[in-house]
Amino acid sequence: MSRFEAALQWFCNNIVWGAPMVMLVLGSGIFLSYKLDFFQITHLGLIFKNTAGTLFKKDNIKKGKGSVSQLGIVSTALAATIGTGNIAGVATAITIGGAGAIFWMWVSAIFSMATAYSENLLGVYYRQKNKKGEYVGGAMYYLKEGLKSKRFLGRVRVPLAFLFALFCLFSSFGMGNMIQVNTVSELFKDGVLGVRLAPATVGVVIAIFVGFAIFGGAKRICRITEKLVPFMALIYILGTLSVIILNYKNFGGAVANIFKGAFGCGALLGGFSGQAVKRALDTGLRRGIFSNEAGLGSSPLVGACTEIKEPAVQGMWGIFTVFFDTIIGCSLTAFALLTSGVTADNSANFGARLVSLAFSKTLGRGAGEIVSVLTLLFALSTIIGWSFYGIKAGEYLLGEKRLWIYKLAFTLAVIPGAVLKLDTVWTLSDIFNGLMAVPNLIGVLALSNQVKKISDKFLKCRVLNR
Q1: Counting CB atoms within 10 angstroms of each CB, which of 135, 336, 432, 458 has the fewest?
Q2: Cα→Cα distances 164→57, 393, 433, 449, Å
Q3: Tens-place pLDDT, residues 354-378
Q4: Is the separation of the CB atoms in 123 and 318 below 8 Å?
């Protein structure tokens, strides 16, 4: 490893994703939860009624010019967040931090729901329409427009908006593209359902698929994710539930291990272990943030494109996305691993291979292939989801006329992503991904009074209209 690579890794691990960043993201969630009277908990029924309860109603959203369905919007947001992190990320969290890491992942998700609510609400409130009549929004817009009245922040609002869009653009090439393609390429080296392909072939095939999606615009991206995300989510839910149900006798022990591990009270530890708590807490919080992306400002980029008129309702969709990604998706992976017993000896298996082992051990040898296929689908959906984010950032930075430059570059980046070793790209992607949170959270926290005002007005109107 060169000095440059070592310096990058140190900066990434200790600064960008070190304790200060983790506490910034978590602290923002705690502050916003308190500010909003724990909206994500006290209004659960209302949240469900306005999100999952409307998904499959034909008349749930009135479409306007250039609009896409709400199912397409939420599928695109989930496409970018539900990914290899829900499989490999959870397995890695348990391997490094123990079962207790899952508890702290839940804690992170609960508070992060308030952040996701706030940033999605602001995304709709400050959105604009482009020349095509399509809604555009996200952190760039609520930073630029929302901070006008703030004394000091009003002077730096334009640079903050620019930096967020730039970090998002760079992150889309790494975390949202090359790394995902590299994951698929590695899968086909070992074979997926008996099919083995050279990395270059994988790169060309996926580049064609990505080009078809990205040059078709927002509507085509959302139509693809609308079909792909519910299908892969259903298969994964059924697969993990099957593993958990067949190992139901171990479920109670798995729950106990999560809570014992979270507070360093495992039997093997012989009492309380502060080091075990620190390891579980640190790993769980980090993986939780990586998984649901709340606070990074990514989901408002697609959420702002909805035809929903009420900002608070779109905020509820932010809560739903975090809930589905972490509380449901990550928890299913965790319980499948813990009930199957594969985490007892993980020295030879790590990440997605550990999940594959859980499937094979419980459902039979061929079931492990399900994990490979799902990892493939998750990676593809993440690429499509992040291409949407990149398009919106690119539109802000380059303008609509020059947006083709980004689309072409994003498509071509797939090929080197499939064939090259990406150690440095991994580190740079983590850095840019994390740096998105800084300007975004500055905006969200500075506008927290606005979020509170809009939320209270929505709840008051709801009571009056009963």
Answers
A1: 458
A2: 35, 8, 10, 22
A3: 787 888 888 887 777 777 788 788 8
A4: no
